[in-house]
Write a structure and sequence with these properties.
- The structure is a homodimer.
- Chain A has no helices and 9 strands.
- Chain A is mostly beta strands.
- In chain A, strands 2-3-9-4-7 form a 5-stranded antiparallel β-sheet, with no helix packed on it.
- The interface between A and B is medium-sized, with 35 and 35 residues.
Chain lengths: 106, 106
């Protein structure tokens, strides 16, 4: 039985948004995402086959959707994104890391 | 699309450990647990049919296991508990809430 900490082992240099698998099992993936001013590429959308439950644990971000209003997420805010809902990260804090925990499931 | 915040809507009075379902779908349950000095009853064990990935988001706690050393969890610490592993919460902070996020999956 080994613990880890979601706020530790943050690289000092984050050239691109960082996706790290914490757990992958049949039908479920738990992932840590670290952003630092990163956004989804312009005109790009995430359109995932799996459902996603996502929470911002540190920092701040704005999620945009094809067919819904932007949602600003601060620490502790969480959201469910159904499969195939087009969304993108349109803003994240530049001065410090934004740490996301995402649960993908089918 | 509606956001919620994991650190909000904390009852002022928490007579017993509080378990709240955030999401329940086939094969997965996401749950918020709030403790405030609570522990698992003496001589009782959790022995779950599902696997659990659990993280302490606020506060502090100690998990005990039948066949392994105690693990002290502070903010951000996470742990995987396989199905059927006997465990109990042997201590949580009394002065302030400990907020857990638990992902149960089969």
């Amino acid at each position: 039985m080994k613990k880890s900490n979601i706020f530790e082992n943050i690289p000092t240099h984050i050239p691109e948004e960082l996706f790290e698998d914490i757990l992958i099992k049949k039908g479920i993936k738990i992932e840590r995402i670290i952003s630092k001013g990163h956004t989804t590429d312009k005109f790009e959308w995430y359109e995932q086959k799996s459902n996603e439950w996502v929470i911002v644990l540190k920092g701040e971000a704005i999620l945009s959707f094809e067919n819904a209003s932007d949602i600003r997420l601060k620490e502790g805010d969480y959201l469910h994104i159904d499969a195939y809902i087009k969304h993108r990260v349109s803003w994240t804090k530049l001065e410090s890391e934004t740490i996301w925990l995402a649960i993908h499931y089918t």
